[in-house]
Design goal:
- It is a single chain.
- With 189 residues, this protein is an alpha/beta fold.
- 49% of the residues lie in helices and 13% in strands.
- The strands form three sheets. The protein has a three-stranded antiparallel β-sheet with strand order 6-5-7.
- Strand 5 and strand 6 form a beta hairpin.
- The longest helix is centred in the middle third of the chain and has 40 residues.
């Protein structure tokens, strides 16, 4: 009996010893054994070889870049070589979802911190508003009276004198002056 092994995969010593044990169990003499092609899987990495450089994704794949933390979805049919050359490695859908959830959490935390910072700055702005007690709504109401009486040009001239293209561009500290100017134009001064 002659046994011909056409492909041998050398992954580790345990597999090699299992193959030898199998051959010994069936009583195959080593002189009847011929190996025509051997592949060493211990040298295989997650980056593609030259044969794989032209491969395309056979399914949707999730890739991760360890240094930057970037994740990428590669759809079926897209080239993979450029991604592997950039150091991306394949991860599971579960791992992809976990990374995305962590990123969303960091974004929400940053937004909360920005809101907290804005809240801490608000008391200073509120004190300016409380000093004069004039709100943008009050200014808008007077500006509406002026504009509805057909005097939009006068309103535009008042805004220009404050170097503002619109009401909301006027600083809150100047609201008393702006309101007084609009009331004067309306004739309520």
């Amino acid at each position: 009996m002659k046994i011909e092994v056409t492909h041998v995969i050398k992954a580790d010593s345990q597999i090699a010893s299992l193959l030898n044990a199998f051959l010994g169990a069936i009583g195959a003499p080593s002189d009847n054994l011929s190996v025509t092609d051997a592949v060493d899987l211990t040298q295989t990495t997650s980056t593609p070889t030259n044969n794989e450089a032209t491969t395309k994704a056979s399914k949707r794949m999730y890739l991760f870049h360890e240094e930057s933390g970037a994740v990428l979805v590669v759809n079926k049919g897209e080239e993979l070589a450029k991604h592997f050359e950039q150091g991306l490695v394949e991860i599971s859908k579960t791992e992809f979802d976990r990374i995305q959830a962590e990123k969303q959490t960091r974004i929400e935390k940053a937004e909360e911190q920005a809101d907290d910072k804005a809240t801490n700055e608000t008391p200073e702005q509120t004190s300016e508003t409380e000093d004069h007690g004039i709100t943008i709504e009050m200014v808008r109401a007077e500006a509406k009276k002026l504009a509805s009486s057909g005097r939009q040009a006068d309103l535009k001239a008042i805004l220009t004198s404050f170097d503002a293209p619109k009401l909301t561009a006027v600083p809150k500290a100047k609201f008393p002056e702006l309101l007084a100017a609009i009331k004067e134009a309306v004739g309520e001064a």
